[in-house]
Amino acid sequence: MIRLTDIVKRFGDLEVLRRVNVSVREGSVTALIGPSGSGKSTLLRCVNLLEFPEAGELVLGEETVRFTGRPPERETIRRVRRQTGMVFQNFQLFPHRTALGNVMESLVVVLKWPEAQARARALELLEKVGLAHKADAFPAQLSGGQQQRVAIARALASSPRVLLCDEPTSALDPELALEVVEVLAQLAREGSTMMIATHDLRLAASVAHEAVLLEAGEVVESAPARELFTNPKHERTRRFISTLG
Ligand code: ADP
Ligand code: MG
């Protein structure tokens, strides 16, 4: 479903991803864990082609992109981006649009859906994240947890093949983080495919099927999440997990 093979990404002289291999099965959730600066965000951004790796290959559904050092074709980028939804640490909602407006935006603007159809779909998604009653609220009128749930609904609007979440609970107090974890856990139960970069052990342990530990741009260990968290094979994994809250 998603396969990243031998991904190399450099920023100038800095090699941020060093032949990274990660696969995510359809309907499964992979947690990317690792210290700050290990390359988690960059790897997610390679999946939706917000970054272009120098080498390696991305398979996303029927799409195969081989990286050669030149940017992929515009059409390829467009097709890949349409199959991904992204959720950011700091929500990144449009402040001047309501919750409903935020979720409708890409359907109306990018996919050119008729207004009424986009509205119905957006309401359905707000319902799914438990926020139908906040459809007309602006982001500033919502808690952080509610804003992130709107952001998740927005990312799901175009029915992406994969939901990419970059530290989705890191900006939230534990209590508000929990409501986001619960929404992501529900999506996981429904068979959504996700890659989640996170420091949140509760999130990783309760939502992910697989876990990948990155360190300095390299995969240290990749295993079923339960196994990686309870019985890591590598000393570096054990040490890293002991630092997580
Ligand atoms: P993580 O998400 O695991 O904290 P990142 O993927 O954000 O790690 O960053 C990995 C490394 O790449 C870090 O050393 C970071 O400073 C560097 N980096 C990330 N984005 C850029 C960029 N646009 N330009 C230069 N260096 C970057
Ligand atoms: Mg990051």
TrEMBL record:
Name of this protein: L-cystine import ATP-binding protein TcyC
Location of the protein in the cell: Cell membrane
Keyword Mitochondrion among record annotations: no
Residue stretches making up the ABC transporter domain: 2-241
Name of the coding gene: tcyC
SMART domains named in the record: AAA (SM00382)
Similarity field: Belongs to the ABC transporter superfamily.
InterPro entries for the chain: AAA+_ATPase, ABC_ATPase_HisP-typ, ABC_transporter-like_ATP-bd, ABC_transporter-like_CS, MetN_ABC_transporter-like, P-loop_NTPase
Gene3D superfamilies noted in UniProt: P-loop containing nucleotide triphosphate hydrolases (3.40.50.300)
Membrane topology: Peripheral membrane protein
Enzyme class: hydrolase
Gene Ontology terms, MF aspect: ABC-type amino acid transporter activity; ATP binding; ATP hydrolysis activity
GO cellular component: plasma membrane
The entry's keywords: ATP-binding, Cell membrane, Hydrolase, Membrane, Nucleotide-binding, Transport
EC number(s) reported in the record: 3.6.3.-
